[in-house]
UniProtKB/TrEMBL annotation:
InterPro entries for the chain: AAA+_ATPase (IPR003593), ABC_transporter-like_ATP-bd (IPR003439), ABC_transporter_ATP-bind (IPR050166), P-loop_NTPase (IPR027417)
GO molecular function terms noted in the UniProt entry: ATP binding; ATP hydrolysis activity
Organism this protein belongs to: Polymorphum gilvum (strain LMG 25793 / CGMCC 1.9160 / SL003B-26A1)
Alphabetical list of SUPFAM superfamilies matching this protein: P-loop containing nucleoside triphosphate hydrolases
Pfam families hit by this protein: ABC_tran (PF00005)
The entry's keywords: ATP-binding, Nucleotide-binding, Transport
Record's keyword annotation contains Transport: yes
UniProt KW Transport keyword: yes
Similarity comment: family membership: Belongs to the ABC transporter superfamily.
Limits of the ABC transporter domain: 2-231
Listed name of the protein: ABC-type nitrate/sulfonate/taurine/bicarbonate transport systems, ATPase component-like protein
Length: 251
């Protein structure tokens, strides 16, 4: 269980996060949305222990997070800067496993399984510059899942890919969640994406930020890019989230 307790974060005079309290249960897909600049990235940085909060705390299974916990992996928007250009897909995915004290054969197994899960087995020995943007982001996702995190933090991971690739990567995330069962915290600007992927949607207010609303997504677990997005419940929920964000923006 990941718990955020009365978290606040200021940068000098700028109060980015005012007071956030929220819990993330094991195995849940949580989408985090909110107006531009409301502090979504700041929240993820505090959650991951990369940035100390000004007040409150983040606790993972009751223990205060002060540095990136071993059980967490992160995927960022900018895949082109997160992969090592001189390493192949296989080497990039294996990189974080080097310090886990695993046998070489186990590393090979985890890497090959993760690369297969993201559909890149055919490209495992290619370098990042030989891959499309979507394939590079798949490599980042494979690197995160090979690490076998309990919690996966993703900061607008699909913002830089085209619409078709984005839809494919969304479906990839649903299959990864079903296969590995990790807790996922997924920051997105895209309201449709948040409703399509989420078990829950955490709507943040504008800065100084609090949690404005937490919605449970009542859609069936099995989702489909066409039929789910035609479902009246989907349409109702996306309008609701959109109104919430407009209201947050208006202050
Ligand atoms: N290192 C920093 N120093 C000073 N101010 C910062 C820093 N990082 C973030 N901020 C400020 O904190 C607020 C929240 O920024 P943050 O990037 O977390 O928002 P966001 O919701 O992720 O933004 P976006 O929607 O544009 O992705 C903004 O006002 C930003 O200018």
């Amino acid at each position: 269980m990941l718990r955020v307790e009365q978290l606040s974060k200021s940068f000098g005079q700028v109060e980015a996060i005012k007071d956030i309290t929220v819990e993330f249960a094991q195995g849940e897909f949580n989408c985090i949305v909110g107006p531009s600049g409301c502090g979504k990235t700041t929240l993820l940085k505090c959650l991951s222990g990369l940035m100390p909060p000004t007040g409150g705390r983040v606790a993972l299974d009751g223990v205060t997070v002060t540095r990136p916990p071993k059980q967490m992996a992160l995927v960022f928007q900018d895949y082109s800067r997160s992969l090592f250009p001189w390493m192949t897909v296989r080497q990039n995915v294996a990189f974080p496993l080097r310090n886990k004290g695993l046998a070489k054969s186990e590393i090979t197994r985890l890497v090959e399984e993760a690369v297969e899960a993201v559909g890149l087995t055919h490209a495992i020995d290619r370098y990042p510059w030989q891959l499309s943007g979507g394939m590079q982001q798949r490599t980042s996702i494979a690197r995160a899942i090979a690490y076998q995190p309990e919690i996966l933090l993703m900061d607008e991971p699909f913002a830089s890919v085209d619409a078709q690739t984005r839809a494919n990567l969304e479906d990839l995330m649903l299959s990864i969640k079903a296969r590995y069962g990790m807790t996922i915290l997924f920051v997105t600007h895209d309201i449709d994406e948040s409703v399509y992927l989420g078990d829950r949607i955490v709507v943040l207010s504008s800065s100084p930020t609090v949690v404005q609303e937490i919605l449970t997504v009542p859609l069936p677990v099995a989702r489909d890019q066409i039929t789910t997005k035609e479902d009246p419940q989907f349409l109702h929920l996306r309008s609701h989230v959109f109104r919430e964000i407009m209201a947050a923006q208006a202050g």
